[in-house]
Design brief:
13 helices; binds phosphoenolpyruvate; binds manganese (II) ion
């Protein structure tokens, strides 16, 4: 997938020293007291770079608290004046953009539901033309990398170069331990496609509960993500939205303190030497894997020709079940993850079927 983003590094618009960017604050601005008290406690931790609070809330059902609206912008502005913390909020319409900018909001973010809708993203992008403000774009609710990239491109084409992505996980039908499945591979793919793009992780919306936040936050740093956005409320138990996933400013400070910051590279030559050795071994094994797969496919082709010539169907379910069963037992004995093994075998199997289909549908070379 081709991408074309013209962006400037995160460090050029926010200085966090050697540490990851930390954005924290309540899910929603509820009252002036709640915003100010939370902001002061967060600022006093010395571990927060930006204050967040939702002013307009995208709710699934009507009748729920849909955000305090424009008045909350003044509370945020006051919090910024009193604490010195830059402020950020979600915008979903051109009017939100205008109002947020007029109130001095320093960073805007586009929410997951908006990212999923190109009309909405384009409306926001048009409202941003000629404005120099950092914009963070959450992944769409559905696991669609193109939509995420497309939203980044729309905003970038409007002239926004201070751009970042927020990885907040993806909605799924299956019930899992997470509110939104992290699907790390999608965030990693985005990072690989646009290496300069800062990716900030949102453990609060991934987890949906307080308990898993430290684990996801650490994993995000281990994946070389540049920052975290974590919901923090002065009294989470009475929060008007997302009560289960918010943490007190004190708990937030503890989470940040306990994180281990790792570096993408090391300056230690001994470490680099050893790493280079491991990588050489990996390269050799990868080459072997490719060669073995190629040999396997050659046999698959032979089987395909044989089945075609004898008029036998490609898919034989019992054989496939047997393969999965036997191989995953072996894999488990060799300490390979079962889910990984099954996924890998399925991939190989699908490719084998594709190959055999090709063969079935080409006529055998006519005998002389
Ligand atoms: C939020 O950050 O409060 C929010 C609504 O997030 P998302 O768009 O990720 O659901
Ligand atoms: Mn929230």
């Amino acid at each position: 997938m081709k991408q074309t983003l013209d962006i400037v590094p995160l460090k050029s618009w926010i200085d966090t020293g050697d540490l990851p960017l930390v954005i924290a604050g309540p899910c929603s601005a509820e009252t002036e007291e709640q915003v100010l008290a939370t902001a002061h406690l967060l600022a006093n931790t010395g571990k927060v770079n930006v204050l967040r609070a939702g002013i307009w809330k995208p709710r699934t059902r009507p009748g729920e608290f849909e955000g305090i609206g424009s008045v909350g912008l003044q509370w945020l502005r006051k919090a910024k004046e009193e604490t010195g913390l830059p402020i950020t909020t979600e915008v979903a319409t051109a009017k939100h953009v205008e109002e947020a900018l007029a109130a001095g909001v320093d960073i805007l973010w586009i929410g997951a539901r908006s990212t999923a809708n190109p009309f909405t993203v384009q409306e926001i992008a048009d409202a941003l033309k000629g404005v120099d403000v950092p914009v963070l774009i959450k992944n769409p609710v559905n696991p669609d990398l193109s939509l995420w990239l497309g939203a980044l491109e729309r905003v970038n084409r409007a002239g926004i170069k201070k751009l970042g992505a927020i990885h907040r996980g993806f909605s799924s039908y299956e019930k899992t331990a997470f509110r939104n499945e992290p699907m790390w591979d999608l965030a990693i793919q985005l990072k690989t496609m646009v290496p300069d793009l800062p990716v900030i992780n949102d453990p609060s919306h991934i987890c949906g509960n307080r308990e898993l936040i430290p684990y996801i936050a650490q994993k995000a740093l281990d994946m070389d993500m540049q920052g975290l956005i974590i919901e923090s409320h002065i009294d989470p138990s009475v929060a008007w939205t997302d009560a289960k996933q918010q943490v007190t400013p004190q708990a937030l400070a503890e989470i940040i303190t306990n994180l281990v910051a790792r570096h993408a590279e090391s300056n230690d030559p001994v470490f680099e030497d050893k790493l280079a050795g491991f990588r050489k071994d990996i390269d050799k094994l990868d080459d072997q894997i490719i060669k073995i797969l190629s040999d396997r496919m050659k046999i698959v082709e032979k089987i395909g020709e044989y089945k075609r010539d004898n008029n036998v169907t490609i898919l034989q379910v019992s054989r496939w079940d047997e393969i999965i069963q036997k191989r995953s037992n072996v894999a488990q004995a060799l300490k390979l993850d079962k889910e990984f093994t099954v996924k890998m075998l399925e991939l190989i199997h699908n490719e084998s079927i594709r190959k055999q289909n090709e063969i079935m549908n080409t006529k055998p070379v006519a005998e002389a």
